[in-house]
Design a protein that fits this description.
about 200 residues, alpha/beta, Rossmann fold, two-stranded antiparallel sheet, 6 helices
């Protein structure tokens, strides 16, 4: 095996914590925090991370959450297993950024696409597609930002997998998650992998 890289998407407190603006009970939150993180730390495996700065203005979206500098923006991925730098996006797709993104001391600009910068971050932090056997996505949510990230990575030539136990839907419904992960359109861009099988390829 060449290499497996794990990428966490939007695993932030506004989604993961009971006080968060978009909190729903989701099994993957406990799994990542209480099982996956310990395994990765024990085996010295680092995680690349994509997070969101969803401050307004964002045309066609009135949600104002994961505000840079505030509690809900904070990641649940511990610093000691995190690869740097972290990529910060402002829409569902990771290619969307903006001026002052992630800077709590300045007002954010309007979203715009920066695919070249995202590719540069991928090459440096995650690795080029031909240097990896697969990228494995964890985080939130499989019906939105995980889905969009899987598309973007697949289009760049990555073999994309999604850890079933490591992702959740917006609703938190496990049957809905299983349906999403095992049927088109999701399966056009990513393949479901179980924790049991991921451990086999990580060893």
């Amino acid at each position: 095996m060449k290499k497996i890289r794990i990428i966490s998407v939007d695993f932030q407190k506004d989604f993961s914590d009971k006080k968060g603006k978009h909190y729903k009970p989701r099994k993957n939150v406990d799994f990542v925090k209480n099982n996956l993180v310990h395994y990765l730390r024990e085996h010295n495996i680092k995680v690349a991370e994509i997070i969101s700065d969803y401050r307004l203005p964002r045309p066609a979206d009135s949600d104002d959450s994961c505000r840079a500098g505030e509690w809900g923006y904070e990641s649940e991925i511990p610093e000691d297993i995190k690869l740097k730098p972290v990529w910060v996006k402002c829409m569902n797709s990771p290619v969307w950024i903006r001026a002052n993104i992630g800077n709590p001391n300045k007002n954010p600009g309007l979203p715009y696409q920066e695919p070249k910068a995202f590719t540069k971050w991928l090459n440096k932090t995650v690795g080029k597609p031909d240097s990896l056997d697969a990228v494995v996505l964890i985080g939130l949510t499989s019906d939105c930002c995980i889905f969009c990230t899987a598309q973007e990575l697949n289009w760049r030539g990555y073999n994309v997998k999604v850890l079933a136990e490591g992702v959740g839907t917006y609703s938190g419904n496990e049957k809905e998650k299983e349906m999403i992960l095992t049927n088109p359109p999701f399966t056009n861009w990513a393949e479901r992998i179980s924790w049991k099988n991921l451990q086999k390829v990580l060893k």
